[in-house]
Specification:
single chain, about 450 residues, mainly alpha
Length: about 450
């Protein structure tokens, strides 16, 4: 692996230490992400075989529902990412540890409160109505939901360690965690098919536990090794440190909520209008074309914290050159999406056979969605890295409010079906496609004022 990375440095003429570090972690991430993508694709037909189409649709919708609660990190994860990187760039290690401590203990308390409230409400919720499924599943869902939710809360807290790795420009760590999770999940499904009867409860418990077990190990490994100087300490939890993280984190918090509404409600909308079985073709098309987004995210992720460090040190030349390269990569990725859409019928047939029918029109609009997302993604990472996120916050908040009623209107009232949901989301992306590049140009040319510079 080291020899491959050295050859890339030599052939591409990379000299900047910052860019060398990014390239190293991108190459490593491609290896792990490639394994994750292959595993996630292989797991779909196996899961359908184990659960059947309806229960798989319930599981997908359940995950979308649980994802709504990820905003209970109150944006502290992204706030910690920027503030930890800034503190390290300035050489203030005590401040960096204080930020880590404040984030861990605050999110820990929020998760504990969240679990208590959820366990209390669970007795009064009819999950079969929420997931639009058979009343006979209520007992199983009433038992599964709190278990999955508890594991989710633990994951919300424990995944802060990957934020620290990323902020410290060890960008490939998240890819490694996803890889081990995907491989573990694939192995578990294969074993379940051979030794167990179909059970949504068993499936949900095991799949929820796997990432938590891996993250527990990573936290113990990191805070007893490389990040021992930053091990969370209750003594360092102070309001002023929390305020520093939360000041920036609040904007990220609102963006997270709006992002969840904009990008994670589609499965729930489809379930309520058409039933959980219709979530499956939508999700398969999404999973197939999301490969392009996964690849581009491998490249973009390291730039967030690197841009933070470069922006603090006024290294605008490096930022400009990096953004030019990222824009070219995005255009190449959009071309690949077009090719993926053209060959999608063949891919679906080889991948899942004839068990699920995915209309070509659904794949086409899903391709448009990912093409737009990838086009403005580099500018979003730049904006997040600089912390100038107020404009992004307002724009995504407005479009999030529009998305759900627009999705219902297109899918149900206009009779567009499932594809109407993704068309509505595409329309909601248009303001971001325009505003993000425009804000980047203003900031990088040092003529951003007012909302453009907040």
């Amino acid at each position: 692996m080291k020899n491959i990375i050295k050859k890339i440095y030599s052939k591409t003429g990379i000299k900047s230490n910052r860019t060398k570090n990014i390239t190293k972690h991108v190459v490593i991430s491609f290896f792990y992400k490639g394994g994750s993508i292959i595993s996630s694709l292989m797991i779909v037909p196996l899961t359908i075989k184990f659960l059947d189409t309806e229960n798989y649709g319930i599981w997908l919708t359940l995950n979308s529902f649980i994802a709504w609660f990820s905003f209970f990190d109150i944006g502290l994860g992204n706030g910690l990412r920027n503030k930890f990187a800034e503190a390290k760039a300035k050489g203030d290690l005590t401040l960096a540890k204080a930020y880590v401590s404040s984030a861990y203990f605050t999110i820990g308390c929020a998760c504990l409160l969240l679990m208590i409230v959820f366990l209390g409400l669970n007795f009064f919720i009819d999950w079969t109505k929420i997931f639009n499924t058979s009343p006979q599943l209520q007992k199983e869902l009433a038992l599964l939901m709190p278990i999955v939710f508890i594991f989710f809360c633990l994951q919300l807290l424990l995944k802060l360690i990957t934020t620290i790795y990323t902020a410290d420009q060890h960008h490939s760590m998240q890819g490694k965690i996803n890889f081990y999770t995907s491989i573990g999940s694939l192995m578990v499904v294969y074993i379940l098919i051979n030794i167990a009867q179909s059970s949504l409860l068993l499936f949900g418990i095991i799949f929820s536990a796997i990432p938590v077990i891996i993250l527990i190990w990573l936290n113990l490994f990191a805070f007893s090794g490389i990040y021992k100087p930053y091990k969370p300490s209750l003594i360092l939890w102070k309001k002023k440190y929390l305020k520093d993280i939360f000041g920036l984190g609040m904007s990220f918090f609102i963006i997270q909520i709006a992002g969840i509404v904009l990008f994670s409600t589609d499965n729930i909308i489809i379930t309520q209008i058409f039933g959980p079985e219709k979530v499956v073709p939508f999700n398969i098309a999404f999973k197939y074309l999301s490969i392009s987004n996964m690849v581009i995210s491998i490249i973009l992720t390291p730039y967030w914290s690197s841009i933070t460090e470069a922006y603090v040190n006024n290294d605008y030349d490096w930022i400009k050159k990096s953004m030019q390269n990222l824009s070219k990569i995005s255009l190449a990725a959009i071309f690949i999406i077009a090719v993926m859409v053209v060959f999608s019928p063949l891919v679906y047939k080889l991948w899942i056979g004839t068990s699920v029918n995915i209309p070509f029109s659904l794949t086409f609009y899903m391709g448009v969605f990912f093409a737009l997302t990838i086009f403005y993604a580099p500018y979003t990472y730049f904006i997040n890295g600089t912390g100038k996120v107020k404009l992004q916050m307002y724009s995504i908040l407005i479009t999030a409010f529009i998305n759900i009623p627009l999705s219902v209107f297109f899918a149900k009232n206009l009779g567009m079906g499932v594809k109407g949901v993704i068309i509505a989301t595409i329309i909601c992306l248009i303001p971001h496609v325009i505003l993000c590049p425009l804000q980047y140009m203003k900031i990088i040319n040092k003529n951003a004022h007012g909302i453009w510079n907040k």
